[in-house]
């Protein structure tokens, strides 16, 4: 059983740390030992999260679409008015294509937990338009050789 939690690291920093690790001497064979497989999974998950958020920010539909599982669900919870909104992949892709996706900055990975082919990431996000913070809980699954987001729940603080 392989489970690892990473706490309070910014996504670009985590990717840089993982890419300089000895664990990536042979990324085509990440299963050589548990440590290298775990490091490889962490790096791939962070890459998926980066594609998702950076693609959304820059309106790059292919990046967002590649990061999301075809059956993904995005749910937003708003504490100021108690409103809950949910959208599916097609609605998210359309929002990104139309420049309507929430623009984020100052992403901070607070927690990453991996167990086999499933993972959960907790991220703090700041909306560049409003300055408001939110916490994002993302569930990911390994689909083939790629980690993809199957669920995002965004908890928007008032």
Can you lay out the helices and strands and say which pair or pack?
Elements: E1 3-9, H1 11-19, H2 34-58, H3 61-67, E2 68-78, E3 84-88, H4 89-97, E4 104-115, E5 118-127, E6 133-143, E7 146-156
Helix pairs in contact: 1-2, 2-3
CA radius of gyration = 16 Å
Which structural category fits the helices and strands? alpha+beta
Strand count, sense and barrel status of the largest sheet are: 7 strands, mixed
In which order are the strands of the major sheet placed?
A: 1-4-5-6-7-2-3
Average pLDDT confidence is 81
**SSE string:** EHHHEEHEEEE
Annotation field: number of helices: 4
User: What percent of residues are in strands?
Assistant: 35-45%
Structural account:
The chain is α+β, with helices and mostly antiparallel strands and 158 residues long. The protein has helices at residues 11-19, 34-58, 61-67, 89-97; strands spanning 3-9, 68-78, 84-88, 104-115, 118-127, 133-143, 146-156. Strands 1-4-5-6-7-2-3 form a 7-stranded mixed sheet. Strand 4 (104-115) and strand 5 form a beta hairpin. Helix 2 (34-58) packs antiparallel against helix 3. It is globular, with a radius of gyration of 16 Å. The relative contact order is 0.19.
What's this entry about, in short?
With 158 residues, the protein is of the alpha+beta class. 32% of the residues lie in helices and 42% in strands. The protein contains four helices and seven strands.
